[in-house]
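Escalation from tier 1.

The customer reports that the assembly of two entities below gives different structure tokens on two consecutive runs. Tier 1 could not reproduce it. I'm attaching the input and our single run for tier 2 to review.
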Amino acid sequence: MVNQSNKVTNTNITKLVNKTYQYGFSTSIEKDIIEKGLNKETVQLISQKKKEPEFLLDFRLKAYKKWKQMSEPEWAYLKFPQIDYQDIIYYSAPKAQKKLKDLSEVDPELLKTFEKLGISLNEQKRLSNVAIDAVFDSVSIATTFQEELSKSGVIFASISEAVHDYPELIEKYLGSVVPIGDNYFAALNSAVFTDGSFCYIPQDTICPLDLSTYFRINDEKSGQFERTLIVSEKNSQVNYLEGCTAPQYDTNQLHAAVVELVAMENANIKYSTVQNWYSGNEFGNGGVYNFVTKRGLCAGTNSKISWTQVETGSSITWKYPSCVLVGDNSQGEFYSVALTNNYQQADTGTKMTHIGTNTRSRIISKGISAGKSKNSYRGLVNVMSKAVGARNYSQCDSLLIGNSSNANTFPFISVQNSTTKIEHEASTSKIGEEQIFYFLQRGICLEKAVELMISGFCREIFTELPLEFAAEADKLLTLKLEGSVG
Amino acid sequence: MNLNSPLLEIKDLKVSINDNEILKSLNLEINKGEIHAIMGTNGSGKSTLSKVLAGHPAYSVLDGDILFKGSSILDIDPEDRSHLGIFLAFQYPIEIPGVSNEDFLRLAYNSKQKFYNKPEVDPLEFLSIIDEKLKLVSMSPSFLSRNVNEGFSGGEKKRNEILQMILLDSELSILDETDSGLDIDALKIISTGINNFMDENKSIVLITHYQRLLDYITPTYVHVMQDGKIIKTGSAELAKELESKGYEWLTV
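Tier 1 run:
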């Protein structure tokens, strides 16, 4: 009896999960491209095209050298064919154009692309209090509200702009949290990163707007290597949002980003991501390979960094937003929902390194696996010997949909201080046919039933997201699961 | 809908699960205003019958037909059967973590409203609707904020089923062993709820093992099921006879 009902659930679940990807269009536009392949010359050419100062070229070349000596990490619970790094375009930019004075000079095709994605770059049309940096393939095309932000001393610019306008800040902080040789993908990014966002919140400032970057991969053969750097000075506060989509191609695109956060004394950074890169089709063809290094440094006492992520896209996700808690009484948080479907694979989690006294960390991870996907939580709570009174609370919940999906948790805990308090909770549950039948019998259709159960499962995470993001995330999850339950 | 036809007509129904034939040529006719009690030993097919009527996807109908208000419902999805007026009170109500009873009940109510092109109610309006129904089954409003059936006692789960039955106001309610596992007080509350709910436009099917429930709810007919068929039909007296003589008396 169990078997039979499971069969039925599976077919219905499949129906619900397999909804088409609505961001799968591509934009045709004139581009400036560096021919595919990676060598020292490519790195030099990128730096040259971006007219970078000497220190940055050095940074890139050192990273390239490191990268050459390293090999791809193999410890993650992921399976994918060898990536050919010579078959990737490392620089692709919409043909420009001198420096843009305002939005009216942006290619209307590009503006249309972002409008289609539901992102209005038109400041007159703004609905919410969010400043946006829009990154298209390798280059930031527009950053809104810069003027308004600068009144309070906040710098919000594309990293390429910042390199020219604030070179001393970039030189000081770039690579300070994620060193160039940190890992294979971080080294690659450090060598070839093309754009991204830079935010600087001066002392005693609460950033008046939420800051947001929207990443869009457009080219079939191009990789996206963005770099984000956020520095929050003493007693400052910022909310940062990140969104991403890509067109639908049969081939895989590589995305290897590095995000560095620095929080000084009493500073508070909240970083939220809704990741919706193209995840491949129902047979596992195509999709983005997402190898991301995100790390925050709580440098000052009482500082706080909070990561919230909703990961729904990419065919491969390799991502561990982490906190290094150096300042006494500093806090790190990680809230995550990762949804995988079809042949998607996600190996994601966090690292909390407790160095200062009375440092606290909190990890809430929710994994949802449907189809034939693999979804793993991997976490490390590392308490160093001087972290007197450190505390950690971790909770990892997995939800399985159907019979062919896979959920794993790999929690590592290392404690070198006897005053530490660590709590870890984990659970695994499954949306079963009997639950669904109960909803149906009460007249509630399949989609609604799943939506209700999924948002119930993710509630703790969604409450951490900014309001408009939370609604989007809720919708997104339901959409991704359409056709997969029942 | 044919006004003269019975509310429910089951004709020569044969049903299997995993290639096991459970219902073997079952016939039953239920008219508005009637209460039918279905009794029988474990494994006689009572629960299968209730699930098949509600459209559970694990069962296959091999032969025969089920007519509801004169039309066949074999090709109708479970959620639409619910909207048309078939309610099943589950023998083992399902726990749904993370979903509050209030959201669940409101969604169920609004789904039916929508089906009949009636306006959906907002959470505030719904509270006043549900508040009244809660009283009918002696449930406290605090119940609404708890997750559906999660951590409910056996009695609370069954009361929740009756609450849903009253809320959805279905014409045909099938109560699968709603009396099992209840103490005498809970049994009284539930029976009162059912009796108040019943009127001349509705029908109820009570699936039960025991005469006990029938002390509080008087059935129009009592059927005895065995091996996938109804082997005897009688009045309320039949239940009492069964209670004293056991089922074997019928099969010899």
